[in-house]
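Shift notes (night). Ran RN213 ligase while the centrifuge was going.
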Amino acid sequence: MYSPDQPLPTFDEVLLCSPQTTAEQVELFFRRCFICCNGGEKIYTMLYADELSYDVSCRAEELFQHLQHYNRNYRLIILCNCEREHTYIPSVFSQYKVHMIPQRRLDEIQQYLQHHYRVPQPSRSAAFVFKDSMCVGIVSSKRAGVGK
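Came back to this:
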């Protein structure tokens, strides 16, 4: 957010982890991170890495240790749920842990995201149907089973 005109991360810079994430997916992600094709400008981010299975986490750690020897100029952020810090990935990388508290107010974060997710005028995008011509939205409900 310090550089509002910088683009948001692209699909190859983010790995959204779940219990179904495979070791192959993590390996491809790490290889993109450590094999610098773009002069090290990209920042790679693993989200919810604490949800990886034990086997995938072990293989991820081994690969990280192996690739780290070839390139020390990587830019990697691993985000985990603080309530799951006892799982494998947060434990292995605990020496690098940084507790983060958002430094911006919610309205500033929302304005920043609106800037990046608004479809430019004029456009023939279906996003014009959505509020404020946004191409991303969140649909939620406090009740289960209401068709969301």
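The chain is about 30% helix and 5% strand. Residues 54-68 form the longest helix (15 residues).
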